[in-house]
Each structure stands twice: as C-alpha cells, then as structure tokens.
User: Fold this.
Amino acid sequence: MSTDSRTAAKTADAPPAARPDVPARVGAPVTVLLWGGGLLLLLASVAVAVTIGPARISVPDVWSTVAAHLGFGASDLSPIRDGIIWNLRMPRTLLAAVCGAGLAVCGTVMQSLLRNPLADPFVLGVSSGASTGAVVVVVLGVGGGAVSLSAGAFLGALLSFALVLLLSHTLGGSTDRVVLSGVAAMQLFSALTSFVVMTSADAEQTRGVLFWLLGSLSGVGWSEVALCSAVLAVCLVVCLAHARTLDAFAFGQDAAAALGVNVARTRIVLLCTTALLTAALVSAAGAIGFVGLVLPHAARALTGSGHRRLLPVTALAGAVFLVWVDTLARTVLDPQEVPVGVVTALIGVPAFVLVLYRTRSTS
Assistant:
C-alpha cells in the first residue's frame, strides 16, 4: 500500500476536526439552514434585481408578471412594462444565476479533481476554444449565417477540450499533464483568436467580439436560459452522484484507487461533464472569469470539504453572486454597459490574492 493509501486509511476513521486537510464537518441542521437560506436569498435577489433599472418596477410587479405568464392569474401591468420584466430583465437575471451556479460548481469539481486550489472551469482551454469559434463565425462568416455565434462558440469549446484530452492522454494522463495540456490549448486558441481579429475584423466587429469575450449577458432570451438550465441540472446530478468519489480524490489518486475508485473512468466522466457545462455557459454568456476560482473557497469555509454539502452551497453562492454582479454591470454606467467579466475580475482579483496567501501559508 502506498503512502497516500496509508494516510487515507488512517484519516478516514479519524474525527473530522483531527484531519489536517478537512475542515470540521457541518451538522445536518446547519446544512439545511445553508441550503434553505441560500435558496431564499437567490429568489429574493432575482426578484429585486429585476426591478433595478431605468423603468420603475416593484417586486409585486415582478411576481404578478411571472404568475401571469405561468398561468396563475392575470397581470394589470401595461404591455411595455410586462415586456421589460418578462422578455428583457427576467431571462437575463435567470441566466446570470445559472451561469454563476454552473461556473462555481465546475470550479469546485476541477479543484478537487486536480487537487489544485487555483484551478477553475477554464483550465481546460474551453473558453479560448469558444472565443476562436465565436470569432470564426462572426468575423470570417463561416457557416454562411446558418451558424450562430453561440453555436460557433460551443463547437470551438468542444474542439479545444478534445485537443486537451488527446494531448493529456498522449502525455500520460496524470493531473499535471491535464493542466499543462489545458495551458497549451489555451495559448493556441488565444493566438488563433487574436490572429483572426487582427487580420480580418473591422473596428465594429472587433468591439463586438471584445465585448462578448469579456462576458456579456445582454440580449439573451428564454431559449438560452432553458438550454443552460437543462445542462446545469444534468451536470449537477452527475457531480452529486460522484460526491463521495471527489472526497476520495482529496487524498490523491493512489489513495482513491485504494478506496475502490476507478480513477481513470471517474476523471474522464467529470472532466467531460465540467467541460460540457462550461462550453454551454461560455457559448451563451462569454468568458466570465473568477467565479469558478473564488466561490468554491468561500463555500468551503461554510460547509467544509464534503462535496455532498459543498456542491449545492457553491451553486447557490455562485448564482447569487453573479446575479448582483450582472445587475451592477448593467446599471453602474447606465446607459452604457460594462462587461460582466470586467466586474468579476475587479472583485475576484483581491479574493484571488487572498487565496494565494492562504495556499502559501498552508503549503
């Protein structure tokens, strides 16, 4: 038995507080309180965020409009105000919640799977591939108008992830090889994106592509909300089904294998799951950074490292966070809009520095 396996065997039976790498376990009542409080906070955040903007709208207006469109009564609002709520602000706010939840969950899984506290959903080069796919469609006109920007971004993201899988498998398949393959793919597709924009795009196209690359939720509709929500639901179920396996990965691959985990199969399943979810979110909203890097650490401070508790709390925290970030992005310089990724970076960089100091002190 390897050193990692012996360590896992010793620590598995020890009280949580005695384990050097696992915070104290959170009791069931506290977990239920976190889940319930987070869900209520998310619902309240969505309702309040929809009211913020040039048009004067109240929370009761939001609830009455939603109830009317769901078939529960009728709304007395004018068609214009009803359209502002239902067709403009509500899809955008809900997609912000879905993107925040999805990116936070992907970050949690990647950090545990790769045993790297600085891993995020974009470590596999998915965002760079999506950027290349988007500019190829928008700037070069590939697809002749039959392929949308979101479809091009999704295909580019999948292509980048396929390249990462191929490279990492060729190089041995270890976690460090996966990370290095992701870095290589990221640099390659970033260079391709820059080359296409510099050689073929005009000023207007460059501005539009740059705005999307930095993350934008403007102009989204219910189709994007439905698609991303469905992908999030499926991927979250898959991740929760592997919660105990992710806990085992905390002790290393050798220890996980000694505990009965099929390391190779689990890694490919979770990598494909997070890549699919990230690709869907990036294709709809662009590359929104730092959500998947910082939010998992904040959630772990509340729940500990047990993924059955951690994943739902992280999803709720990411959803609430991005709802308010998007609200700030679309209102702080009204009528001009700030890319969502710019705001998350301004907030995330100080938090990222704190994570760096924390990892340095515990290394």
Notes: Residues 1-24 have pLDDT under 50 and may be disordered.
